[in-house]
Design a protein that fits this description.
CATH architecture of the largest domain: 3-Layer(aba) Sandwich
Structural class: alpha/beta
Shape: elongated
Helix content: 40-55%
CATH superfamily of the largest domain: Vaccinia Virus protein VP39
Radius of gyration: 21 Å
Strand order of the largest sheet: 5-4-3-6-7-9-8
Order of helices and strands: HHHHHEEHEHEHEHEHHHEHEE
Number of strands: 9
Number of domains: 2
Number of helices: 13
Length: 291
């Protein structure tokens, strides 16, 4: 059996299961089994696949058939052009969250040595992407999960930014408040799935990704509401609260911001599918809480 034959067999197996993009998934898993880049795979297309690689590939296909996400099988996910290690301790970074990072970077233009917090950092994707782009930034990354922070620290070290990110364990902004830090931007991609909707999530999310990072403890906007309440305690005058929201959730979070009386009308950023995905709200100067 050639490598090309192995890819076709994997594609057919995944297609029979109804897997989206079966051909791409089969290629990613085959490259992982072989330890090849994409170029190396195609250069070896007509060569025989050895028994060890074939067995490894079959194991990966079986894992995917059970619903395990490809990113957890390979242990890698690309985000903002960077490679991140991921496993079941952390949420898999999504392309739509890149909209949040791009928004933060835009808001930081013209601010020298900005101070930023990534709340609920998970794999560290947001904090590390910001640190890799803004070398002058001081960044705090928090998470309630000690296990997630282990993954984030590993990724920070891999990208040589660990010295510029302060990792703190705690609930939302509590560790930032305790640290007595004032910030130019608070960024967060909070869990925003309501508990009642959790059972309806796709199997690869429901059964494999950490519920703590997916399901909100109450209404889908419950953590957004807490961020709106807590952020004034750590933002500098004129600072920004930047939050990701679920598709269709933006109007409810805008209403929370409006009722707070603390933030100006938010900027809205859309994702690649046109959904309102990121809200950026600037604190009114007089609303920042003084020490």
């Amino acid at each position: 059996m050639t490598i090309a034959d192995a890819w076709m067999a994997g594609r057919e197996q995944l297609s029979a299961l109804g897997t989206d993009e079966a051909g791409i998934t089969a290629e990613v898993l085959l490259r992982h089994a072989l330890g090849f880049t994409r170029t190396e795979l195609y250069m070896a297309w007509d060569r025989p696949i050895d028994e060890t690689a074939w067995a490894r590939y079959q194991g990966f296909l079986d894992e995917r058939a059970r619903g395990r996400p490809v990113a957890y099988i390979t242990g890698h996910r690309e985000f903002m052009g960077l490679d991140f290690r991921v496993d079941e301790r952390v949420l898999i970074p999504r392309p739509e969250t890149e909209v949040l990072v791009e928004c933060v970077l835009e808001l930081l233009r013209g601010i020298a040595a900005p101070a930023v917090a990534d709340i609920g950092t998970g794999s560290g994707a947001i904090a590390i992407s910001l640190a890799a782009t803004r070398r002058d930034a001081s960044i705090i990354a928090t998470d309630l999960s000690a296990a997630a922070l282990e993954v984030a620290r590993t990724n920070a070290a891999r990208h040589a930014v660990a010295g510029r990110i302060r990792f703190l364990q705690g609930d939302l902004l509590h560790p930032v408040v305790a640290a007595g830090v004032r910030l130019d931007v608070v960024a967060c991609n909070p869990p925003y799935v309501a508990p009642a909707a959790a059972d309806g999530l796709p199997k690869d999310i429901r059964d494999f990704e950490p519920a703590l990072a997916v399901v909100a403890p109450g209404a889908g906007e419950s953590l957004h509401a807490r961020l709106v309440e807590e952020a004034p305690r750590v933002l500098k005058p004129g600072g920004w609260l930047v939050m990701e929201v679920a598709a269709g959730q933006a109007p409810r979070v805008v209403e929370i911001l409006s009722h707070s009386g603390v933030f100006a009308a938010p900027q809205v950023r859309r994702d690649g599918l046109g959904w309102e995905r990121v809200l950026a709200a600037r604190i009114r100067t007089a609303s920042a809480v003084e020490d």
